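Entry 0007
Protein: Phenylpropionate dioxygenase, large terminal subunit
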Amino acid sequence: MGREETDTGVSGAAPAAEMIFGDWYPALRAGVLKPGKMTTALLLGIPLVLGRKKDGAIFAMRDLCPHRGIPLSAGWFDGETVMCKYHGWRFEPCGGQCQEIPSLTQIDTLEPTKIYATSYPCVERDGYAWVYVPPAGSGRVDATQLPAVPELPKFGKRFRSAHLVADLPCNVDHGIIGLMDPAHGPFVHQAWWWRSQASIHPKEKKFEPIPEGFRMSAHAPSSNSAPYRLLGKPVTTIDFVLPNRRIETIRAVSAKGKESWFSSLTTVTPITAATCRIDVLAAWDIFYHVPFVTAIATYFGKRFVQQDQETMIEQAQGLRFNPGLMLIDDADKPAKWYFALKQARLTGSGAHPLAGPVTLHWRS
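Output (structure tokens):
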């Protein structure tokens, strides 16, 4: 594949603060949701109140009473209904339907059940509370017409898992193109257990289009990443799918024919137009019987994510001055694809940026 001239700007990129609605996002870890308790979160600039009913069902509502706008989280939740602190209006939280307005009298004709607070589809999956955030003004959502809830790939019933989270002081676009950037590893993530600047060497990877995303086709993982060498001869596949998901799977077969695997689902979720959050969920059966393997993996994984977080905090200092930015050659081609895919999603038009399989080259 031929080279392109260096871009002097992010050509064709969607506006930095624009967010994709009409999809599922992880709001928080579902384990914090206890029956009879409410928890708040911010998602795509929307204030949410979440909780778990007595029957175990979780819910997400806009944290505003439709009557006078006071946060519903200031009120009470008895495990069945949410009661507003201001005037005692009660709502069934999964659908948002009003159940009672205490101030009404026998001569009032208003029917409370015709009033709805805003609620959002909310599903517990892989330990997260996933919330579907529809476009503004779309009305009540038909749950039967929603896309599938994201799920971490798993290749067996016996596995260990861990999750990591970090807040990033940048908009979702910068978070995502940082997530898919293949060239920063030897600099941001240099460590004895990962990579060094001296380990840089040419890379060649094949990519192919998939619906609303692209795939780094099955390949041997980078030889200059120490943990991969422990796996023997694994094969890895990496997908990026709108609006914000990176899915990596690694499968290896030992000399004795035993298969082992690792998978991760990483999301970059917009919290506001200017901030986002990265969540990493991983599962594996590699070294399943090794004592403390989860604690060890979590320790090194946390350090890895912290390195990205520290870099984004430093980058945010420069971005305050609205500098002109560049996307260059093959190493930044995935970022260009992301912006093209996002623009097509936002406008409802535009061809997939990959007409077919391509091969990219870079050094890292």
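Curator remark: Residues 1-15 have pLDDT under 50 and may be disordered. The helical segments are 172-180, 185-188, 226-229, 293-319, 333-347.
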